[in-house]
Design brief:
Distance between the termini: 20 Å
Mean pLDDT: 96
Bound molecules: MU-OXO-diiron, calcium ion
Shape: globular
Number of strands: 34
Radius of gyration: 24 Å
């Protein structure tokens, strides 16, 4: 793209200081508007949000824990896309989880270990996705409370399966005996904006919601085989009650299994194929899900070709006509892998304006090859294919006895193990530099990284001392790694890598912790959200800025979570370096590859309110408004002990009432492009 060749020399704003205040702080010259909060009505059928725990019917309100988010331009009137419109659009965002206590008058209740059915259904309905229409009025943005495309997708919304696992016996359930349909989506973390105007929502920590009673491992091995038990363990589906005790609640009505389906315990009296109990329900989750936001009646499609894991997000690389596009994905758990999917279809630019959007999704997301990354100490790396019958992914595999491509994709983690992929420090968001195609990946932290298990790409193991809350160990502050595909091609099976920046307090040891020489203007911890500004933002002004969001617990004794802006460098602009790790009595050296210290090319742009995570980010095509999510302010409080009053506290730093996750809009007072 010839309009984006000159890198801006400086970040043209004054860094925001670290802060523990109960406000969203931005640089002078910028303003914050609160746009869309937990409980805000979206279709005219419910009243204003009381915010006292009495509210119900979240199918008609904003859900909780706003996360990944995309802006899609709408035509000036009507419901058709107009990708270039910066005044009217659809904002699509995830509601990952809940701050349970604030959803009820006096916190969650149970009686004799049994949760009230109404409380459980409410908590479920606060999860999922929102589609809302937003408009720029004279000077400020607002959401349209009765927009005709407004929609909530919840754990109850019908979904369909497509790709190689659709119809597999692994997906046979009472709800869909042929394994082609499911109900809802849950723990929707980061997003993906597809160039054909659809939204990807990614199912992350879904396993925790499932109940499995003591003894189910043995029962499962007897009824289904040891492979199922091994796979459930590998995916964190342990014998336990399940999040929030949902399955203790009584059914809403006879035959209503919306709650019961979260109990995957095998009933030995039921059919072995899973169509009479809920033994296969966990296989319905852990997928990338595609939504057409321009058709409120459309059924979300679970794209099984992209594998099953704790999907953080899914970002498409550069699209080049005639070349097969790549989609980059992290599996967010300690010591998990990074993946890319390469379509079988080559990119056709006309697809960007096609009206059969989910059919275009079928074309690019149902057929292709999933790869997992192996990073070598010399700064090179390989993409290893997850193809049944190749190498160890065969029936002859002594540990896993892979049975089919559906088996390989449903159990992508087992395939990654068999292939010898590199165990990373919690892969979160991916982002692609639209100028050179380099892929950046946040590795948020890893408390289980030891001196002995460090490698060149996950090179730190140390203790981060905190002034309050106790020390954090391992890779306590996280880092951001970046890959450059060989030949800058999305189709490449090899790449080079280095580490863009290591998170650290600026006061920590530069010899083995603060390796990127962060200072007071840019020190951060636990990078998570990651986004490159749209190229259209910066015509003639250079490489789009990269934005970094944090979800931290290690540095929160000093500062609330934050958003930083960066002028990125390039893979290989630094050098190999050997550091000495020391943790838990073990000491050893590790050689890694570190990019050029960011210095003034990385600057803190925003600090959030108390106990929040900063996550989700997009902008209008003109770059003059950016949308950011403030997730779970005051998450450690309760109705009896409220620990944040945001957003009511935004104007003055104090306020009253329960905190609410919310989307904000940031604009420049002079109307200019944000960050430049
Ligand atoms: Fe939902 Fe890994 O963050
Ligand atoms: Ca995240
Ligand atoms: Ca996180
Ligand atoms: Ca969170």
């Amino acid at each position: 793209d010839t309009t984006v060749t000159v890198t801006p020399a400086t970040l043209d704003f004054t860094a925001v200081p670290k802060s523990l205040a109960d406000v969203v702080a931005v640089p002078s010259g910028y303003q914050v508007t609160v746009l869309y909060r937990l409980g805000d009505p979206i279709n005219g059928t419910v009243g204003a949000f009381a915010n006292d725990g009495t509210d119900t019917t979240y199918s008609a309100r904003a859900g909780d824990h706003h996360d990944g988010m995309s802006y899609f331009g709408l035509a000036a009137s009507g419901n058709a896309p107009d990708a270039g419109n910066s005044s009217r659009g659809l904002l699509v965002l995830n509601h990952e989880n809940i701050t349970q206590a604030y959803l009820h008058p006096n916190g969650a209740t149970s009686s004799g270990g049994v949760r009230p059915t109404a409380e459980v259904l409410k908590e479920m309905e606060c999860h999922g996705v929102s589609v809302i229409e937003i408009t720029r009025g004279t000077g400020s943005w607002s959401y349209v409370a009765t927009g005709s495309l407004n929609r909530r997708i919840t754990p109850f919304t019908p979904t369909s399966f497509s790709g190689p696992v659709a119809g597999s016996s692994l997906l046979f359930t009472a709800y869909s005996p042929t394994g082609v349909a499911g109900r809802g989506t849950i723990n929707n973390c980061a997003n993906g904006t597809m160039p054909w105007n659809t939204y990807l929502t990614n199912e992350e920590n879904w396993a925790g919601y499932f109940r499995r009673d003591t003894g189910d491992n043995a029962r499962r091995t007897a009824a289904v085989g040891a492979k199922s038990t091994v796979a459930f363990a590998r995916y964190g589906l342990s014998e336990r009650t399940g999040n929030y005790g949902w399955t203790t609640a009584a059914a809403p009505a006879a035959g209503d299994t919306r709650i019961a389906k979260f109990n995957a315990t095998i009933d030995p009296t039921k059919a072995a194929n899973g169509i009479e109990d809920f033994r296969n329900e966990p296989n319905q989750y852990g997928w990338v899900v595609e939504i057409d936001p321009f058709d409120a009646a459309s059924v979300p499609r679970k794209r099984t070709a992209l594998g099953r894991m704790n999907h953080e997000g899914c970002v498409v690389g550069r699209t080049v006509p005639g070349v097969r596009p790549a989609f980059y994905m992290g599996d967010d758990a300690q010591n998990e892998y990074v993946y890319k999917f390469v379509s079988s279809a080559t990119w056709a630019a006309a697809d960007a304006t096609a009206t059969n959007r989910l059919a275009i999704g079928d074309k690019y997301l149902d057929t292709g090859t999933l790869y997992v990354a192996k990073l070598d100490a010399d700064g090179s790396g390989q993409w290893l294919p997850l193809v049944f019958g190749q190498g160890p992914l065969a029936a002859s595999n002594a540990t896993y006895a892979f049975a089919s491509q559906a088996d390989v994709l449903t159990h992508a983690r087992l395939a990654g193990d068999a292939l010898g992929a590199t165990r990373m420090d919690r892969p979160e968001w991916t982002a692609v530099n639209p100028v050179n195609g380099e892929m950046y990946l946040t590795l948020t932290n890893n408390a289980s990284r030891t001196v002995a298990t460090t490698d060149a790409a996950n090179p730190r193991a140390y203790t981060d001392p905190k002034t309050t809350g106790g020390a954090t160990n391992g890779n306590a502050n996280g880092h951001i790694i970046r890959f450059r595909e060989t030949g800058d091609s999305s189709e490449s099976l090899t790449f080079t890598w280095d580490i863009y920046a290591f998170g650290a307090g600026s006061d920590l040891n530069p010899a083995n912790i603060n390796l990127s020489n962060l200072d007071a203007t840019n020190d951060f911890s636990s990078p998570d959200g990651l986004w490159f500004a749209r190229p259209s933002n910066v015509a003639g002004q250079g490489t789009p800025l990269m934005w970094i969001e944090t979800d931290d617990g290690a540095y929160t004794d000093v500062t609330n979570c934050m958003l930083l802006a960066a002028i990125p460098g390039s893979v290989g602009d630094g050098a190999a370096r050997t550091i000495t790790n020391s943790l838990g009595g073990a000491t050893a050296s590790q050689t890694t590859r570190i990019g050029k210290a960011p210095g003034t090319t990385l600057k803190r742009f925003l600090v959030g309110p108390k106990e929040c995570e900063i996550t989700g980010i997009d902008s209008t095509p003109d770059g003059r408004a950016i949308f950011v999510n403030i997730q779970h302010p005051g998450e450690n409080g309760s109705p009896a002990s409220i620990t944040s009053n945001w957003p009511q506290s935004q104007a003055t730093g104090t306020g009253s009432g329960r905190p609410r996750s919310a989307t904000i809009v940031i604009t420049k007072t002079d109307g200019g492009i944000v960050g430049l």
